[in-house]
Design brief:
The chain has about 120 residues and is mainly alpha-helical. Helix content is about 60%, strand content about 5%. The chain contains six helices and three strands; from the N terminus they run βααββαααα.
Length: about 120
């Protein structure tokens, strides 16, 4: 039998949030050191309780890092700028996600590969 789901307004423990995001708990603790905006309540014994706003922020960080391909530094800059999404960060800073590069390096590498292939074919 499945556990009853908590309300979206309920606080989440680190274990519950980690399960929801599909990441280990130590990743959430690491994010707390890198993103000052992510500050869950800490009770006795350093038990962490994530408020709904913390949950939403952790989900956003997870999406930016794991789906959109941003680096930690890129997400830090995005959150510091207060941008709603990556498009605003690109406009403000010129930064792009780590997995989205301009065509220039790819074209340069293709040209280099062709040059090397031609040189090897001549031998």
């Amino acid at each position: 039998m499945a556990e009853p789901r908590k309300s979206d307004q309920a606080f989440r423990t680190i274990g519950e949030l980690a399960d929801d995001l599909g990441v280990p708990q130590h990743i959430l603790r690491y994010w707390e050191t890198r993103f000052p905006q992510l500050r869950p309540l800490q009770r006795a014994g350093n038990r962490r309780y994530y408020r709904p706003a913390d949950v939403a922020l952790a989900q956003r960080i997870h999406r930016l890092l794991n789906q959109d391909g941003y680096t930690i530094r890129g997400v830090q800059q995005l959150l510091a700028s207060g941008a709603a999404d990556g498009e605003e960060l690109i406009a403000a800073t010129g930064l792009t996600p780590a997995n989205q590069h301009s065509d220039f390096p790819a074209q340069a590498l293709k040209g280099l590969r062709k040059t090397l292939k031609d040189a090897l074919d001549e031998e």
